[in-house]
Amino acid sequence: MADQQMEEYNQVNTLWAPLAARFQTTPFGPQGLDSPAMKMAFMASYNIDTFRRFVFESSFLNRLDLPLERLAAVRHSDTALLALGLDWIHHFLFGQGPLRKGLRS
């Protein structure tokens, strides 16, 4: 498990699984998977470089209360950035998850 980096893979998979289930059962309006919301979700989960630019070059960080420790982790780790992206999808699409509106602390 360790030499194959399966622990990190399993951590990310655990974060992704609830979203994958929601995508199977939630209608996303007449545009479906081509909706702007789903395009943003795709960016956050599959295009990590574009999502990084979105986080650090837009008003993203001014709109969410993101602890400084998490922000530091996101700056230095693609895995932490992906976890933020998945939390953001929960927040953005479903109004759920740990992210909250407001200025970061």
| Major sheet description | none
Radius of gyration: 14 Å
Distance between the termini: 37 Å
- Counting DSSP H or I runs of 4 or more residues, the number of helices is 6
Structural class: mainly alpha
Task: Output the helix-strand order.
Answer: HHHHHH
Strands, count: 0
Helix content estimate: 55-70%
How many domains make up the coordinates? 1
Strand content: under 5%
Task: Summarize, please.
The chain has about 100 residues and is mainly alpha-helical. Helices cover about 70% and strands about 0% of the residues.
Keywords, separated by commas or semicolons:
single chain; mainly alpha; 105 residues
General description of the model:
The structure is a single chain. The chain has 105 residues and is mainly alpha-helical. The chain has one domain. Helices cover 68% and strands 0% of the residues. α2 packs antiparallel against α6. The radius of gyration is 14 Å and the shape is globular.
